[in-house]
Design brief:
It is a single chain. By secondary structure, this protein is mostly beta strands. Strand 14 (228-232) and strand 15 (235-237) form a beta hairpin. The structure holds copper (II) ion. Copper (II) ion is lined by residues 444, 506, 508, 511, 516. Copper (II) ion binds next to loops.
Amino acid sequence: MHSVSRYLLAILLCGGAFLRVGAQCPNRPGLGTVVLDAYTVNSENGVLNADFALGQSVDSEGYTHYCFNYKAPSGYVESPTFRLNPGDTLKLGVKDIIKTDNMPAMKMDRPPSVCGDSGPMTVSSTNVHFHGMIVSPTCHQDDVINTLIQPGSPGFQFNIPVPAFQPPGLYWYHPHVHGFTEFQVNGGAAGALIVNGMEKVRPEVTGLTERVFVIRQQYLVPWIPGPYQLTINYHQAVFGLPLPIINMKPGEKQFWRVANATIQDFMPLQVQVNLKPVNLELIALDGFPLSEPRMVNTILVPPAGRAEFIVEAPPAGSSAQFMTGNYSTGPTGNADLEQTLGSIQLTTNADADGWQAPKTTSSTPPVVVDNVKFAKTNLSQPATTQRKLYFSEEFGGTNGPIQFYITVDGQPQKVFEADEKPAITTHVGAVEDWTIENRALETHAFHMHQIHFTVLEIDGKPAPNQDYRDTLEIPFWEGPGHPYHSIKVRMDFSEPVITGTFVFHCHILLHEDLGMMHKILILPAGTN
Ligand SMILES: [Cu+2]
């Protein structure tokens, strides 16, 4: 049977069959409490050594939690923030301690090769993708195609060398087992990874109080469109209930580093003071420092995107909120709803429990902007190859889309299969322009693994800002008589570390799990 059909059948047979068992995940913060940053683990002497274990719980409201449990001095915490310098190595041991007798017996294919544990990919298997990091797609680095960690196995060791040329900024990690990514990210298994040195490229942030906000999304049953909750550093943001509190000191500027770790929420972010959006100084997108800061009052961050910006404390006596706005994803998409993520409050005290947000300092090793990989991608030179790809959906009866495709123009539309051949083969040194159209009645979010791309055009017109992104929204098709929305991006495959097979896909995680993904193979230079 086709893997997607098997997947859907498994969902029908097992949907919602997560049992309440002994909690493996730490308690999450209560309503209306002060938002702190995640526990942070810093690299030391060029290495960051850490271990965590994937657990699973169901909370009193029925939400399934998945958690990367890390043993901090004060006890277990989930999803620590990892901070490294360019050139450091992340040595991350990962175990899976999920008790499988409580889990639905969904199975997908086996990976084409064994990396880590053998066996089928299931809702209880895991691995880790290091989103945005320019690291090799090989086993023990950032290989999501083959890497598998099975419950109860001794675990798996990731060895991630952060290149000296990695742009300083906010990245994130999350599970990426094909077919089941959505379950685990919906459950909250995702965290921030920061490459230090932003102040070397964007000195505007030097000395500012720094906040790291990871926004997650939880559905009771992730594959059924319905009510969902957003959380900010695991604090629930629910309309009508006490909101998370974000503390600022009067008159201060803070440097906010925000990751959209939702499974499908396109978030137009704003800070509103007395119900009006205020200017934010945008510093970086998707971990990549902008060539110049930009004053904006709304920052659209697609699922998996990151935005880093400077926020000024609101005037005393005002009402201030951190918000995401309404966003239409089209006739077959789910509505993304306005939600206040946090109430900004002025205080002169430490944030809570004696915790103080760190300040961005200049103590990290130098980051030379010219060394930031791809920042010097030659945009005036023609690409070596032009490609066209498109997103599309196929319908079944009256029940909405049932197949989700990303297709290289000229190839048959088909969903991802673990053992498929690469849809694109190219070589180190190629500089390619990809035009990606959205022919579906739903907005999609294009994500490229392993490298950033430069945004050249939007809807056939030069992009107002040629930003470096790893994830970008392409709005839905308005229907007959309307053109398809598109982006044209430059893929720079000049980095020899990026050799091998990896994937590109939609970052609406249900779409990815259902096969809106394909492989690309980068051969060494000089081969074709
Ligand atoms: Cu999609």
